Amino acid sequence: MEAINLIDSFAEFKELKNIDRATLMRVLEDIFRNMLIKRYGTDENFDIIINIDKGDLEIWRNRIVVEDDVFENPNTQISLTEAKRIDADYEVGEEVTDEVKFKDFGRRSVLALRQNLSARILELEKDHIFTKYKEKVGQIVTGEVYQVWKKEILVLDDEGNELILPKQEQIPSDFFKKGDTIRAVVIRVEMKNASPYIILSRTSPVFLERLFENEVPEIFDGLITIKNVVRVPGERAKVAVESYDDRIDPVGACVGMKGSRIHGIVRELRNENIDVINYTNNIQLYITRALNPAKINKIEMDEENKRANVYLNPEEVSLAIGKGGLNIKLASQLTGYEIDVYRELETAEEEDVNLEEFSDEIEPWVIEELKRVGCDTAKSVLELSESELESRTDLEIETIRDVLKILRAEFE
């Protein structure tokens, strides 16, 4: 019975299609040789013949024929008398080969061997999964949602391997239930408690980059390169692209006819607003494109401190900043420059008053906070509602109301 169980374990090895033949042979032989060493003290005089296809093996022991009176080691030597019982033609110095049967090892040894075999099978499977997904870091994988927990989702791939999508790697508006198909990028693979721990992400910029590669053949073929990707998952993203072929419009190719190519990406990302920008080495032009749709009048560059002062007409300031300050935040991340926006006053608006003039009534830190979001004059603040000021700045609503009251009084 133990021998049959052992062969069953061996058969499990045969079913491991992902393990190459050489590794299979090496591991099996290693396990059986360890057993021989424990029982006989050496494995040097044993031949192990493994039949992968049949799922069985044979163990043969080689012993030297010696005179009866010098016979000492029954494992490496066989007496001449015993050898002649096997074959009368044997002489001293010749080699006798006989098969070692499983029953000779005893029940405990066979049980231990089976446990070792099962452990190595499991170890090989884990190593295979770890190696497989280590090579897939940065690639999109598709799986099925198996379990939804508060802090993470358990996903199974098509081979039943477990993948983890943590809550912080999910788009805020993501909602998945058991059985749903899910796409994400592999961002990290590590060993945790001796098992492979595969972490997925849908918020990583790499996920967006790979989606573009899948949807835009020119990117996949290398005719268009993605230079940089920045995003606030589920809200807004900016993608800078460059073409190595003057005949190809990189932005048009990424968006597709009537948005056909980018629509699939937007849907996958829960309607994330994606700006595709033509990359350029001209940093002023790059910043101008990054702040789209706002129209820029001029830019003052501070190369040493990586800062840019951008001047716009008053009505363009809110476009440059964007909802919740996302547009200017992402433009800064994309270009690598800290961007500050300032409004340029037209002649008809010269009666406007600079916020610095109110320093005796409004605290300096409040003025600085308003200037940070592009409001450097009284009228620029008054053009915005209480709710807009509250969402764009870090000011309390009571402080905003006090400021508006002071500024309105100036013009009344």
UniProtKB/TrEMBL annotation:
Gene3D superfamilies: 3.30.300.20, Nucleic acid-binding proteins, NusA, N-terminal domain. Residues 138-203 form the S1 motif domain. CDD domains: KH-II_NusA_rpt1, KH-II_NusA_rpt2, S1_NusA. The keyword Transmembrane helix does not apply. Pfam families: KH_NusA_1st, KH_NusA_2nd, NusA_N, S1. Belongs to the NusA family. This is Transcription termination/antitermination protein NusA. It comes from Butyricimonas virosa.
